[in-house]
Amino acid sequence: MASFIILMGVSGSGKTVIGKTLAPIINAEFIDGDNLHSQRNVDKMAAGIPLTDADRLDWLQLIAKVGREHVAHCTSCIIACSALKKSYRNLLRTDNASIRFVYLKGSFGLIHDRIVKRSHQYMPSSLLKSQFETLEEPQADEQDVITVSIDQGISEIVEEIAKVNLS
């Protein structure tokens, strides 16, 4: 059965590296949601300006559409997308009954330490604070979300996700 998985969490939580590692294990295509942003959004983030809900709307709709198309073609995909607010996750759920979220959870300190050591095309570490302020952690009523702690190695994180039935 085809699945549509969103790897969610703040910038620096490991969405891309986890997605690239997990995809071949579960026979899915990995798509970095950052690559689906409009140039306008990229320019804002590169300038250190946090995106607004209005800025994210088209981006979230495109991610939902890509996931829907994969499932319709009986292929699985993993998309890295921060999905910081419940309203964003609800938008992604629209017409996507098979969607599953994996929340990569970590502390500000842990993620800040990681983010300052990496180079990212348009996500300066200064935006991490605004991401944590925006983050609405998934609650018990969001039964299509599993939470995985990122205070372990990549292989352990991937193994934990792969053990869960995400279809």
- The helicity comes to 40-55%
Q: Give me the Rg, rounded.
A: 15 Å
The helix/strand order is: EHEHHEHEHHEH
- Estimate what percentage of residues fall within beta strands: 5-15%
Number of strands: 5
Distance between the termini: 7 Å
Mean pLDDT across all residues, rounded? 90
Q: Outline the biggest β-sheet.
A: 5 strands, parallel
Helix count?
7
Shape: globular
Structural class designation: alpha/beta
Strand order in the sheet with the most strands: 2-3-1-4-5
Give the low-pLDDT segments.
Answer: none
Explain what the structure shows.
The protein is of the alpha/beta class and 167 residues long. 44% of the residues lie in helices and 15% in strands. It contains seven helices and five strands, in the order βαβααβαβααβα. A five-stranded parallel β-sheet has the order 2-3-1-4-5. Helix 1 packs across helix 7 and helix 3 packs parallel to helix 4.
